[in-house]
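Here is the promised in-class demo. Please do not try to memorize the tokens; focus on the logic of going from shape to residues.
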């Protein structure tokens, strides 16, 4: 079986410990053994990064551009193969896997261009004969901690801006799906990224991730993952004076109004709630439906969800792949049981026998927004359908959550669409579109309990990955 090592100071380093990367579609299929970094490896990676930071941050933007451009081009040319790897290790369908790899390539190419677009400001001073320059510089050595659900896109949207703006990087991917992050490391190396500028430390959150967060040589941490881990990381970053950015959970509402185009609404909800097995932080998990359309919408949604083909991620007929692992499947099943206890009528949600962790999409009808099953993030193919009287109650229900990542509305009314856009408390708003599915050149992030710190992606990523310097210059 192939063994994958960590990358430190431009060298592949062996570890005493490793973990098997298992295919959730077929648990007999082991993709490889992936190293687990101990604290010494993390310390070496941080030292290597700090050692080359001066040279890297002072390198020409064209040099950084060319490395990121070459990385993007290689990922794009290998998208079918890397898409297969992604689907094999994470379980999303092959179309989704190839789509995500394509996205990662586009992100690297976008940030190649950003190396040349890092504008500042020149202003007159309040004093005569003095100019004021506001410039952006790299922060230093950044620790990037990523989850398993987008194993190539999320590493890409943190690594690419970090490198573009001149930072050195230590990437710690999730243990459940480290394969794509290893490929990014290998491609960066082949694309001429200098030793120590990018380091990969695969390993557990409790050991490798924890050391990264606590290390005094790390200047900033960007994290995507669960709420409790995010909170723990924020506290540690505050204690050690690190800049921190967190992307955490969601319980994203999708409002369906009486005047919605039924086909658009059912498609958006089906996609938003169940595609990628519901394992997206932007998934539509609360479908908030007004009185007159409720019953026919529910009937059509339930029928369509029942027809979705659940199966092996690499089988082209599958529309929904497996749940990522046994722990997540058990969590999903406990919420299916809870929804029933809370009084919902549950359709679907059953486990399907097979070599992997297969579960049918679940619709929780008759839900209300006070139920735990409608308030807590499940991260599986489960959606609560909440009946409301009118638009006002729909908006109030959409906002009645501790999260605020994405929010959608299906309506043909410009008045309601605009009112919703202005008044919903979320970082992203989708009108007649699924709550999931975002572009790479515009800000990504949420409000309230979903996010902390500046936005990710697009040119806004510079808010996190650069630090501002103000210079006063007399003539
Ligand atoms: P998920 O439910 O997506 O696995 P986690 O928050 O547990 O969410 O994990 C997200 C990422 O954070 C993973 O790379 C994981 O290894 C890492 N992680 C988990 N616990 C810690 C921790 N205490 N400190 C740093 N990183 C951690």
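The designed amino acids, position by position:
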């Amino acid at each position: 079986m192939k063994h994958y090592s960590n990358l430190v100071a431009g060298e592949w380093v062996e570890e005493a410990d490793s973990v098997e990367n298992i295919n959730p579609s077929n648990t007999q299929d082991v993709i490889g053994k992936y190293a687990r970094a101990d604290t010494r490896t993390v310390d070496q990676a941080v030292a290597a990064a700090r050692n080359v930071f001066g040279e890297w941050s002072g390198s020409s933007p064209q040099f950084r551009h060319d490395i990121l451009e070459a990385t993007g081009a290689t990922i794009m040319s290998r998208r079918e193969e890397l898409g297969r790897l992604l689907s094999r290790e994470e379980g999303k369908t092959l179309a989704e896997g190839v789509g995500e790899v394509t996205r990662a390539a586009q992100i690297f190419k976008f940030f190649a261009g950003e190396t040349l677009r890092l504008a500042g400001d020149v202003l007159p001073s309040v004093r005569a004969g003095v100019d004021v320059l506001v410039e952006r510089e790299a922060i230093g050595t950044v620790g990037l901690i990523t989850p398993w659900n987008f194993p190539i896109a999320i590493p890409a949207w943190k690594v690419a801006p970090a490198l573009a703006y001149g930072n050195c990087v230590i990437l710690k991917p999730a243990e459940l799906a480290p394969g794509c992050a290893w490929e990014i490391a290998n491609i960066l190396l082949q694309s001429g990224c200098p030793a120590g500028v990018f380091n990969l430390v695969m390993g557990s959150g409790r050991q490798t991730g924890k050391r990264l967060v606590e290390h005094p040589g790390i200047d900033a941490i960007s994290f995507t993952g669960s709420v409790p881990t995010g909170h723990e990381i924020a506290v540690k970053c505050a204690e050690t004076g690190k800049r921190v950015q967190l992307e955490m959970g969601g319980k994203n509402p999708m409002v369906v109004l009486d005047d919605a185009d039924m086909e658009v609404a059912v498609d958006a909800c089906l996609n938003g709630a169940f595609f990628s097995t519901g394992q997206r932080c932007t998934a539509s998990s609360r479908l908030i439906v007004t009185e007159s359309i409720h019953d026919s919408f529910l009937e059509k949604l339930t029928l369509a969800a029942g027809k979705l083909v659940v199966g092996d991620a690499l089988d082209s007929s599958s529309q929904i792949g497996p749940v990522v692992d046994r722990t997540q499947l058990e969590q999903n099943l406990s919420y299916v049981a809870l929804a029933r206890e809370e009084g919902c009528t549950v359709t679907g949600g059953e486990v399907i026998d097979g070599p992997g962790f297969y579960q049918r999409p679940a619709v929780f009808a008759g839900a209300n927004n006070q139920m735990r099953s409608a308030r807590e993030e499940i991260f599986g193919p489960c959606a609560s359908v909440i009946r409301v009287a009118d638009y006002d109650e729909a908006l109030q229900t959409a906002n009645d959550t501790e999260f605020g990542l994405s929010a959608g509305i299906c309506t043909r009314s410009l008045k309601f669409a605009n009112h919703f856009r202005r008044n919903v408390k979320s970082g992203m708003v989708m009108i007649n579109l699924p709550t999931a599915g975002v572009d790479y050149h515009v800000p990504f992030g949420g409000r309230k309990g979903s996010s902390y710190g500046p936005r990710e992606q697009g040119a806004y990523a510079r808010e996190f990955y650069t630090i501002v310097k103000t210079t006063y210059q007399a003539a």
